[in-house]
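Hi,

Apologies if this is the wrong queue. I'm a grad student, and the batch job for Threonine synthase from Marinospirillum celere produced an output file that my downstream script rejects. I'm not sure whether the problem is my script or the file. Here is the sequence I used:
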Amino acid sequence: MRYISTRGQAPALNFEEVVLTGLATDGGLYVPEQFPQMSKDDIAALAGLPYAEAAFRIMKPFVGDCIPEATFKKILQETYASFKHDAVAPLKQLDSNHFLLELFHGPTLAFKDVALQLLGRLLDHFLAKRGERGVIMGATSGDTGSAAIEGCKPCTHVDIYILHPHNRVSEVQRRQMTTVLAPNVHNIAVEGDFDDCQAMVKASFADQSFLKGQRLIAVNSINWARIMAQVVYYFTSAVAVGAPHREVAFSVPSANFGDVFAGYVAYKMGLPIKQLIVATNANDILHRTLNDNDFSKKPLQPTLAPSMDIVVSSNFERLLFDLYNQDGQAIADLLQKFNQEPTQIDASAWSKARELFDSFSLDDAGILKVIKDAYEHTGELLDPHTATAYLASQQLAKDASTPIISLATAHPAKFEEAVIKAGFKQGAALPESMSDLLERKESYKVLPADLQAIQDEVARQQLASRG
Ligand SMILES: Cc1ncc(COP(=O)(O)O)c(C=O)c1O
Ligand SMILES: N[C@@H](CCOP(=O)(O)O)C(=O)O
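Support response: The file is valid. Your script probably expects a header line. Output copied below for reference.
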C-alpha cells in the first residue's frame, strides 16, 4: 500500500513512513493511493469475531508488509485488552431502529482511545526497530491530548508535547492530561483556541529546524493510523445490525472530521452505508459547507461541547481530495482561497458529497435539551458531543427501515458542567480508577499562542532531558 499527499507534491510513502511522518512536506495529509476492498463475504465473515481479530482483517491491507502478521496481531490484542468492555465498542439498542455505539470504554473515556492506544504501540514498534527516538507534538480541544498521553506514556522512544487551549477544556479533560507526571510527558496550555494550537503544530511540521534533527511525529488525526483504526468500528457495528445484507446509516459528532472520514473510508471499502450524518455544535462550518456549499470561516465560539470547538477542520481535506478525483493542485488552490476569503467547493464535488452526507448543527441550549430528553426517553445519559448526533439521527434519518447508529464519542463524566446545566443534580461518576483525579497534582505551562514561544519551550525541554 502506497500513501500519497492530498496536495500532490510530497513523495509517496509506505505505512511505516506515513506513521512516522505526520504531515506531508507539501502541507497535505497522507491518504492511501487506493482504498482496499472488502467483499460481501469478507464483511459477513466479521460477524462474531473478537474486536482485535476484526481489526486485524480490516487494517491488514493498510499496513501491508510493514509489520509481520504475528506481531501486528499481538499489538492489536494488547491494544484492545486495555478497554474495560470485552466488546471494546459495544452497541446499545435505543429503540427499534436507533443504536448507540459506545466508544468510551478505553482508558481516557473517549473514542480517541480506540486509535491512540494502537498508535502508541505502533510508534514504539517502529522506533525500536530503527533504534530512533521521536518528538510528538499534538493539539487538543480536550480528548486527543489525554488519549495520546495515555497511549504514548509507556513508549520508551518518544517525548510528547500536548498543546491545549487554556481554560477551554473541561476540568476532567485538563486533569486527565496534566496529572500524568511522567518525564516524557509535557503539557502546554496555550492562550488561544484549538485552531491556534493545531495551526502551530502544523507549522512545526513545515519547519522542523527547532528540533535540531530529531524526528517530529503527529498523534492528531493528521496521522493516517488514527483514521485507519477508527474504520474498524464502522464495520463491526454495521455487521452487528445486519450488514452486508442490509444498508446502515451513521450519525457522527464531528469537528476535525477524522471520525466521520473513517466512516467514509469504510464506505469506500465496500461497507453498505446509506447515509453519513455530520453533526456539529454551534461551530457549524461543516454543516454550512455540506448543506449550503458555504465553505467559509466564522469566529470560533466556546460551547458546552468543547472538544468540537474547531473551525479549521483538518480531515475535510482528505474528503475533498477524493471528491476532486485526487487532484492535489486543485486542493492546494482551494485551501489557499479558503484561508483568505469565503469560498465554495466545486459544484460536482459538492453534489457527490451530498449523495452520502447530511449535516446538522446544534447550539448549547439544544444540547442541554437533548441530554435531558434522551435521559427521560432512553435512560441514557449522553455527553454533550454525543447529544448532537443523537438529535441529528432523529431529525435526518432517511427512512425508518435502515438502522441508524449514533456514535457515543465520550463518557458524560468528562463534562460535568453540561450535565448539571441540563438539570441533573450532579455529574456522572468517574470510574474507580479516576476517582481521585480532582486531588492529583498537576503540571503544565501556560504560554501565548506564539509559534516561537512554543517551539522554544519544546527545544528547551528536549535539550534539558536529552542533553
Ligand atoms: C468527544 C468528541 N466527540 C466528537 C469529536 C469530533 O471528532 P472529529 O474531530 O474526528 O470530527 C471530538 C474531537 O474532535 C471529541 O473529542
Ligand atoms: N476533538 C479533538 C481535536 C483534535 O482532533 P484529532 O482527532 O485530529 O486529534 C480533541 O479532543 O482534541
